[in-house]
Write a structure and sequence with these properties.
The protein contains 9 helices and 18 strands. With 375 residues, it is α/β, with parallel strands linked by helices. The strands form 5 sheets. It has an 8-stranded parallel beta barrel with strand order 5-6-9-10-13-14-17-18, surrounded by 6 helices. The relative contact order is 0.17.
Length: 375
């Protein structure tokens, strides 16, 4: 018998279920809860003033489907927060919206040769190589601790074949403390000559469908930015049964050693993350949110409340904080508090009124069309 999963519940829902992208009609400004200032006869009309709310009265819950409800839309990204326990003395983990733990594979991996990390202008390159003890060891070492937390923990899963992903998901299914799975499909598919699952719509759909068949856990799939057009890949993943998309994974890049005689990283290539990739992440979230009806969670360069608001505006229902955690592990908790304060200041009873405000009324052309480069 599968263990009963813990569901984080929150205040009552608005007309748009949490975690769903509002329709064009629902994105229109809701009837304002205003109070008009008294004016004297003949005086010019005064604009109404929104009634401010207490942050505690703002609904920040996010419904990602299959019973997975986040207490707020600020999550931590895979690879930046370990398995959560590493930050237990620094952060009150139960104030987070969700934790995506370190990438986990079927068998233990020792990772890539050093050096593995280097700073870049506006970000960092990492080439860790999915170092981890393997799924069985992760379950044995961490799952019991996760059951004592209120914050949902999603296991980030990676593999080199459909079989790898399926077997890891099968072993996680029904494990107490595991609230969901996030598939990292930016991995080489050995069955297709090493082509990444994430850059081919058919392969992305295939691995998503295969995992969906073996688990009832909420399933998130992480999109790669290293593609010309994200839309067919996003649609294929949604059609294959994913409950949500996360976007984006890192961009591929290299750094050069100080002597300029070789690449710096031991594996040559690394993943670029941090503020430098935010415009790319915004574009991909913007395009994906227009072509799927499942929730989209944004990742890429979140460092302050303005970044959170930007991603919500282009259709994200939540964000993951990643690279910025290395400089300030308390940032995600603070962002959740700041979002509640901002909603209260605007008189919004739910943060969901901020979702999709920058999306077009009709699906626009993707950037691959090159329209932004016309003279």
């Amino acid at each position: 018998m599968k263990a009963r999963r813990r569901v984080v519940t929150g205040p009552g829902r608005s007309a748009n279920a949490p975690g769903t992208r509002p329709t064009a009609e629902s994105r229109a400004p809701a009837p304002a809860r205003f109070v008009a200032r008294p004016v004297s006869r003949g005086a010019p009309a005064v604009r109404p003033v929104a009634i401010e709310l207490s942050p505690a009265d703002v609904d920040l819950t996010v419904d990602l489907g299959r019973g997975l409800v986040l207490p707020n839309p600020i999550m931590v990204a895979s690879g930046t927060f370990g398995y959560g326990v590493e930050y237990g003395d620094v952060v009150d983990v139960d104030r987070l919206g969700g934790i995506c733990c370190k990438g986990t594979t079927l068998k233990a991996r020792i990772g890539n040769p050093t050096p593995r990390v280097t700073e870049t202008p506006g970000g960092m390159l990492n080439s860790i190589g999915l170092q981890n003890p393997g799924v069985d060891a992760v379950i044995e070492k961490y799952a019991a601790t996760w059951t004592t937390w209120h914050v949902p923990v999603l296991v980030n899963v990676a593999g080199e074949s459909v079989h790898d992903y399926v077997e890891v998901a099968r072993r996680l299914d029904g494990v107490p403390g595991v609230a969901g799975i996030e598939l990292n499909i930016s991995c080489p598919n050995v069955g297709r000559g090493g082509l990444q699952f994430a850059i081919d719509a058919a392969a992305a759909g295939e691995v998503t469908a295969a995992v969906r068949r073996v688990t009832d856990l909420p399933l998130l799939v992480k999109l790669s930015p290293n593609v010309a057009d994200i839309r067919p890949i996003a649609r294929a993943i949604a059609d294959a049964g994913a409950d949500a998309l996360t976007a984006i994974n890192t961009l591929s890049g290299i750094a050069v050693a100080p002597d300029r005689k070789r690449p710096l990283l031991g594996n040559i290539y690394g993943g670029l993350s941090g503020p430098a990739i935010k415009p790319v992440a915004l574009r991909i979230v913007y395009e994906a949110a227009q072509v799927v009806t499942i929730p989209v969670i944004a990742i890429g360069g979140v460092t302050d409340l303005g970044d959170v608001l930007d991603f919500l505006a282009v259709g994200a229902v939540a964000v993951q904080v990643g690279t910025a955690i290395f400089a300030d592990p308390t940032l995600p908790v603070r962002l959740a508090d700041e979002l509640a304060v901002e909603c209260g200041r605007r008189g919004l009873a739910t943060y969901r009124d901020l979702i999709g405000t920058a999306l077009p009324a009709r699906t626009g052309q993707p950037s691959v069309k090159g329209v932004e480069y016309r003279p």
